[in-house]
Design goal:
Blueprint lengths: L1 H30 L36 E3 L18 E3 L17 E6 L6 E6 L6 E2 L7 E6 L5 E6 L6 E6 L6 E2 L7 E6 L5 E7 L5 E7 L6 E2 L7 E6 L6 E5 L6 E5 L7 E2 L7 E6 L5 E6 L6 E6 L6 E2 L7 E6 L5 E6 L6 E6 L6 E2 L7 E6 L2
Parallel strand pairs: 1-2
Antiparallel strand pairs: 3-4, 3-26, 4-5, 6-7, 7-8, 8-9, 10-11, 11-12, 12-13, 14-15, 15-16, 16-17, 18-19, 19-20, 20-21, 22-23, 23-24, 24-25
């Protein structure tokens, strides 16, 4: 009996515990928030806008931008294409295969005097001795040519009118012009560096040779020296500030310099034998001349103050009338070492002497042009 009562109590207790657990679960469910439903995404419906299509204007047609533009900064030449360009590419100009025309520089020339055709005339040739051509033709002697600084013409001494006078002509032999008209001798012309004046030698009133200067057209004649001895053979310095010449005013013919107005005359050489025909170097640092100090005429060079005199030629005959090339690297002169008077050239130090002319006549007084 007692056992039955205990079992009944236990059953009631179990039933009560189960009911308590159920109640707890219901309470917990009441405390949890209810899930919020996500509203559906709205559907976007595009608005349809009606466009008014403009009527094309033929005078203002729209320009379609190309994909690629090829621009060449070259001459304004548009060749006709042989094939159609690719779509989207505009070719403004092709680059032509242009090869510029190169005008060759004419070779330098040497003018000289020669009597190879009987009468002494002016000739020119290339500096290798080729292309020798006669430039003058007159019954009187033409000699002592001097190129103008720009090489367009040369001055020379001529006896075609009976006495020595100075003439000019173009480098091709045209436009012969007489510059002096004197009863006495005028000769040995040499140009100033700018080509505006010509220095020369003339017989003055006392019968001696003196140095004169005139404008390139023959006007403005002025006497620069007036010694009782001979003053001759002028040559301008490359800056035009001095003139070198030779003079016998002290004893033998010696080399002097002076200003272009004849003042400030300075003696550079001092020998008992003649030093003649001085020529200023293109760079203004040297003076060429020829001298008889060793018994026969030889070519010498010295500093412009007269120091460091050096002999450049050495043979048993005469080497005279030296002249510089325009760049100062070579010297032309005439020599009778072959038995005739011929034109030679050599390096500025006297080496590599070469003969340019070879005939039985006299070729002399070279002047190196451009």
């Amino acid at each position: 009996m007692i056992l039955l009562m205990l079992l009944a109590v236990a059953a009631v207790s179990c039933d009560a515990g189960q009911q308590l657990d159920d109640a707890r679960e219901r309470a917990a469910s009441l405390l949890e928030p209810e899930p919020t439903a996500t509203p559906p995404s709205p559907q976007l419906i595009p608005s349809v806008v009606e466009e008014n299509t403009p009527t094309p204007d033929p005078d203002h047609a729209p320009t379609q931008e190309p994909d690629v533009v090829v621009i060449a900064d070259i001459p304004n030449v548009i060749p006709t294409p042989t094939t159609a360009p690719e779509p989207g590419v505009i070719v403004i100009a092709d680059i032509p295969n242009v090869i510029p025309t190169v005008t060759p520089t004419p070779p330098a020339r040497i003018a000289f005097a020669s009597d190879r055709e009987g009468d002494r005339e002016i000739y020119v040739m290339h500096t290798d001795g080729s292309n020798q051509a006669r430039m003058t033709k007159s019954p009187g002697r033409d000699e002592a040519p001097a190129w103008s600084p720009d090489g367009s013409r040369f001055a020379f001494l001529s006896f075609r009118d009976g006495n020595g006078e100075i003439y000019t002509m173009n480098a091709d032999g045209s436009n012969l012009t007489r510059l002096t008209n004197n009863a006495e001798f005028d000769g040995g012309p040499t140009w100033s560096p700018d080509g505006s004046r010509i220095a020369f030698t003339a017989i003055s009133d006392d019968g001696s040779l003196d140095v004169y200067v005139m404008n390139a057209d023959g006007s403005g004649r002025a006497q620069l020296t007036s010694s009782r001895a001979h003053d001759a053979g002028p040559s301008w310095s490359p800056d035009g500030r001095r003139i070198v010449f030779y003079s016998g005013q002290d004893r033998g013919n010696e080399i002097y310099t002076m200003f272009p107005d004849g003042t400030n005359q300075l003696r550079l050489t001092d020998n008992e034998t003649p030093d003649l025909e001085p020529v200023w170097s293109p760079d203004g640092t040297k003076i060429l001349f020829y001298s008889f100090r060793d018994g026969n005429a030889q070519v010498y060079v010295m500093e412009t103050d007269g120091t460091n005199q050096i002999r450049l030629t050495n043979n048993q005959d005469q080497d005279e009338f030296p002249t510089w090339s325009r760049d100062g690297s070579k010297i032309a002169f005439y020599s009778n070492r072959t038995g005739n008077s011929d034109i030679f050239i050599m390096n500025a130090d006297g080496s590599n002497q070469k003969q340019l002319t070879d005939n039985a006549a006299i070729d002399k007084q070279p002047d190196w042009g451009p």
